[in-house]
Amino acid sequence: MDKELNRIKKAAAIQDMSGIGRCSLTVIIPVLSVMGVQVCPVPTAVLSAHTGYGEFVMRDLTDFIQPALEHYKKLGVQFDCVYSGFLASSEQIDSCLEFFKAYPDALKVVDPVMGDDGKAYATYTSELCTRMSELVAVADLITPNLTEAAILLGEEYPKGAISEHTAKDWLVRLSQKGAKTVVITSVKLEGSGAATIGYDSSDKSFWKIDNVLVPAQYSGTGDMFTSVLIGGLLRGDALPVAMNRAAEYTEHTVYQTYQCKNSFRDGLLFEGEGMAWLNSAHRFDDCKRM
Ligand code: PXL
Q1: Shortest-distance atom of ligand 1 to CA 27
Q2: Atom 1 (ligand 1): residue with closest C-alpha?
Q3: Ligand 1 pocket list (CB less than 6 A)
Q4: In a 10 Å sphere around its CB, with 0-12 CB exposed, 13-18 middle and 19+ buried, how is residue 67 labelled?
């Protein structure tokens, strides 16, 4: 047992801590912990509630990240993954770049959190959105939703469903910005309703999973998807297997939350026994080539 515990992988999560609303660290820590990964939080901001509540108290921690990194370097701490997400200021891009540079062998994941449903989040300035490309350029994996993919590519947010041809074009153009692997969530694909799509530039493979369309959008859904995806990749799953696990678990949790008629802004109801599912030997064969 001790030997097993010694092999536990570490992920530095550069993300905010929001007291209520279940997003960022309050989702990432439990999910990755259940999947056998130690999350080392590097908070970008502390909020009483996420920005979707409209009113919230926020403390920006821009001046914390760099000293924390220096401390980890001094301690000789190694991270197997560095995962950036919600940022509180454009200067935090520089801190994330330093973090990624300090751990060149880590799996470098950038969730370019900027907005949803065609709109940028309240605290996201145009400078922060523009500079997000600098993080995408150094990432191994990026996981934008369709809104964030459109912002990164300088495209209009699509009003209706997009074709597979456009989806592939967006995936390839995003990977040309630097990341070897690109996964886009919340895609309305012609003939599919809702889908999650992915591209691995190392073998030029395209992947697609159809999701059940639930008429609700809960905060933290992207954080849950990306954490499960990272958990799978860190234990050696191939991209389509990891995508499948992440999409299925997220879909299941969204559906469960919808049945409970919970408020959208309170996030996904995932606490409890259902989390054991994250480690089940399930058949993951819904991820198809596109
Ligand atoms: O899950 C995205 C997210 C993360 N963190 C904060 C947010 C949001 C989306 O609204 O407000 C603080």
Answers
A1: 1
A2: 220
A3: 16, 18, 23-24, 47, 50-52, 86, 113, 121, 219-220, 222-223
A4: exposed
Residue 18 alpha carbon, nearest atom of ligand 1: 12
CB half-sphere exposure, 178, CA atoms < 13 A: 16
- If one residue of 15, 113, 270 were mutated to test the ligand 1 pocket, choosing by the most ligand atoms within 8 A of its CB, it would be 113
Task: Give one DSSP letter per residue of 167-206, joined into a string.
Answer: HHHHHHHHHTTT-SEEEEEEEEETTTEEEEEEEETTTTEE
Distance in angstroms (rounded) separating the CA atoms of residues 83 and 14: 6
The answer to whether residues 250 and 157 touch, using CB atoms and an 8 Å cutoff, is: no
Other CB atoms within 10 A of residue 117 CB? 10
Structure tokens given for 54? 């409209």
Per-residue pLDDT of the chain (290 residues; tens, 9 = 90+): 556 667 899 999 999 999 999 999 999 999 999 999 999 999 999 999 999 999 999 999 999 999 999 999 999 999 999 999 999 999 999 999 999 999 999 999 999 999 999 999 989 999 999 999 999 999 999 999 999 999 999 999 999 999 999 999 999 999 999 999 999 999 999 988 889 999 999 999 999 999 888 888 899 999 999 999 999 999 999 999 999 999 999 999 999 999 998 889 999 999 998 899 998 876 678 899 99
Are 224 and 268 within 8 A, CB to CB? yes
Task: Name the closest-CA residue to atom 7, ligand 1.
Answer: 50
Give me ligand 1 centre to Cα 57, in Å.
Answer: 13
**The pTM is what?**
0.96
DSSP, res 162: B
By the 8 A CB rule, do 9 and 80 touch? yes
Residues whose CB falls within 8 Å of the CB of residue 6, separated by 6 or more in sequence, listed in order: none
